[in-house]
């Protein structure tokens, strides 16, 4: 099969063996795959969890048709099914995924659209609903809301009954578009007054659930904006891995600060994340209520160009490669 393979000089299209599914895995003929920030880490020569190093085929999410299933795969997944998956090795003509990381794509979604959804759906449902413990009529703030995952978070928060949904983005053009995806208010995190604006939007109470993709420099401002007994869920660290932390403010507000990542999840935990997400969100997915914009599409053999485009940070929504 053709695949994008990481070598000493970066990524290149090369021949690779078709992966063979293990008993609990599903082999998929990939039709489209989506780019994620973690792919930039891997293709720069660093590791992302267990993924990385020469010979690696990047790609964390894709969509296509089931070709073969292992002996332990439930009968609900069968050859010919249109599916979306998460895992590793998606920048290729074929990829395998654990059956618990597979979801039906149906005929209402193109493969390109389906490839944008699984990681964002799983990550943000886990952050907002499971770890953020959102209740109806509470408030949500997505720090770094103009990313694909952030845009999905805005939509999920609104779908799950949040009374006030706030998104942040540094770029004015991107902030202007957040309302399209459910934001009641868009704030500029480079404005030192933004925590006060979030407090005003929540009637002085503060934000109940903050999902943070930025970390580092915004941590104390997040706590200023948070409600007493608020929950801050750390999903990403695009702004840095280390920063100041006001321990007294954390204690005064009795904030629950929760870090999440898929890198240390067991197979069983990821299956549970996918199952819970589908229980809450799948009707909305099939009805077209949860979608991500596709900024640009590249063919697989232009993976280096697609990655460079992501690295330039000029996109809004998702970048997809067709296979």
TrEMBL record:
What Gene Ontology terms describe what this protein does at the molecular function level?
A: oxidoreductase activity
Arranged from A to Z, the UniProt key words for this protein are:
NADP
Highest taxon, organism lineage: Bacteria
SUPFAM superfamilies, A to Z: GroES-like (SSF50129), NAD(P)-binding Rossmann-fold domains (SSF51735)
Name of this chain's protein:
Quinone oxidoreductase
User: The Enoyl reductase (ER) domain covers which part of the protein?
Assistant: 7-321
Per the UniProt record, the source organism is: Skermanella aerolata
Alphabetized InterPro entries for the sequence? ADH-like_C, ADH-like_N, ER, GroES-like_sf, NAD(P)-bd_dom_sf, Zinc-ADH_QOR/CCCR
- Pfam families attached to this UniProt entry: ADH_N (PF08240), ADH_zinc_N (PF00107)
């Amino acid at each position: 099969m053709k695949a994008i393979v990481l070598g000493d000089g970066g990524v290149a299209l090369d021949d690779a063996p078709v992966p063979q599914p293990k008993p609990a895995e599903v082999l998929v003929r990939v039709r489209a795959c989506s780019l994620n920030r973690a792919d930039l880490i891997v293709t720069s020569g660093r590791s992302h969890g267990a993924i990385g190093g020469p010979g690696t085929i990047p790609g964390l999410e894709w969509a296509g048709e089931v070709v073969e299933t292992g002996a332990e795969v439930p009968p609900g997944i069968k050859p010919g099914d249109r599916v979306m998956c998460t895992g590793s090795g998606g920048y290729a003509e074929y990829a395998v995924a654990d059956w618990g990381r597979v979801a039906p794509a149906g005929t209402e979604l193109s493969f390109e659209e389906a490839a944008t959804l699984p990681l964002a759906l799983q990550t943000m449902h886990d952050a907002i609903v499971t770890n953020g413990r959102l209740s109806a009529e509470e408030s949500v703030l997505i720090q770094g809301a103009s990313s694909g995952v952030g845009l999905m978070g805005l939509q999920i928060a609104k779908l799950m009954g949040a009374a006030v949904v706030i998104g942040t983005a540094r770029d004015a053009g991107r902030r202007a578009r957040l309302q399209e995806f459910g934001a009641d208010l868009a704030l500029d995190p480079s404005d030192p007054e933004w925590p006060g604006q979030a407090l005003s939007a929540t009637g002085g109470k503060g934000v109940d659930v903050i999902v943070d993709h930025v970390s580092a420099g915004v941590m104390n401002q997040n706590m200023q904006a948070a409600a007493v007994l608020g929950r801050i869920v750390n999903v990403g660290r695009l702004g840095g891995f280390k920063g100041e932390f006001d321990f007294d403010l954390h204690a005064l507000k009795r904030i629950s600060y929760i870090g999440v990542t898929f890198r240390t999840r067991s197979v069983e935990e990821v299956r549970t994340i996918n199952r819970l997400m589908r229980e809450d969100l799948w009707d909305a997915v099939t009805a077209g209520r949860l979608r991500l914009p596709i900024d640009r599409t590249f063919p697989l053999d232009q993976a280096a160009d697609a990655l460079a485009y992501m690295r330039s940070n000029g996109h809004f929504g998702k970048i997809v490669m067709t296979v």
